[in-house]
Write a structure and sequence with these properties.
The protein is mainly α. About 75% of the residues lie in helices and about 5% in strands. Helix 3 (about 75-95) runs antiparallel to helix 6, helix 4 (about 100-130) runs antiparallel to helix 5 (about 150-175) and helix 5 runs antiparallel to helix 6 (about 185-205). The protein is globular and about 50 Å long.
């Protein structure tokens, strides 16, 4: 009797564990791909793109004051620590439960972009842009603003994530029917609302340092000249 019950119990654990492990592997694979691609393009741009420069501050939406906080050695480091915490929460939310594949992919694209830009401020810029101040390399020139590949993933991933979350929430509401919402459906609605609100908070706070605002470092031209002459 005990042998049969144990045999039946082990497969049930395996069935619950395998999808979650696959989803986690998918999230980490997308995060890794985004970070590697972004860092490689920044490495290339710093050495070969004439418009490449360091973004060490905020963005036009938050103004020069917040940009100055990020550029300052002390307040910038404190904000970077806050961003690390927010992004850690975002990754944990993605991998904690089994979610629709598109939610995982779009969420990982968006989060991977933020992680890569934050990684520049935490030390990756020493490899991608040797001799530069703390910040990310921006080299995609659109209008009066400069971007990088991580910003593209952030923008595209955010739009697709919100659209996908909305579609999933609507489809689940249709499944419950027109009657009174069940406790499960209410919990799911609250969960999706919290997830979307969390994503918006991550975008708002971490995004302060994602896009160039105003002045750039004055060491970029000299650094590139040194690199080219020593190559």
């Amino acid at each position: 009797m005990s042998l049969h019950s144990t045999t039946a119990f082990v497969p049930s654990l395996e069935v619950g564990w395998e999808p979650r492990s696959r989803h986690r592997a998918m999230v980490f694979a997308v995060l890794t791909a985004v970070i590697v691609l972004d860092q490689l393009t920044k490495w290339w741009a710093w050495r070969h793109a004439s418009v490449a420069h360091i973004n060490d501050g905020g963005n036009p939406l938050v103004g020069a004051t917040v940009g100055g906080w990020y550029a300052d050695p002390l307040t910038g480091a404190l904000l970077d620590l806050l961003d690390v915490g927010l992004l850690s929460v975002a990754v944990a939310v993605l991998i904690r439960r089994c979610r629709p594949v598109m939610i995982l992919i779009t969420g990982a694209l968006m989060t991977g972009g933020w992680i890569s830009n934050l990684g520049d401020r935490l030390g990756m810029h020493y490899l991608t842009a040797p001799g530069s101040v703390r910040g990310a390399v921006d080299f995609i020139h659109l209008g009066a603003v400069y971007y990088n590949v991580a910003d593209v993933f952030i923008a595209a991933g955010t739009v697709l994530f919100l659209l996908t979350a909305g579609v999933v929430a609507m489809s689940r509401s249709h499944v419950t029917g027109s009657g009174a919402p069940t406790a499960t459906s209410r919990l799911r609605a609250k969960g999706w609302t919290s997830a979307i609100a969390g994503a918006v908070c991550v975008i708002s706070v971490v995004g302060f340092g994602a896009v160039n605002y105003g002045g750039v470092t004055d060491s970029t031209a000299t650094d590139r000249a040194v690199i080219h002459s020593s190559a």
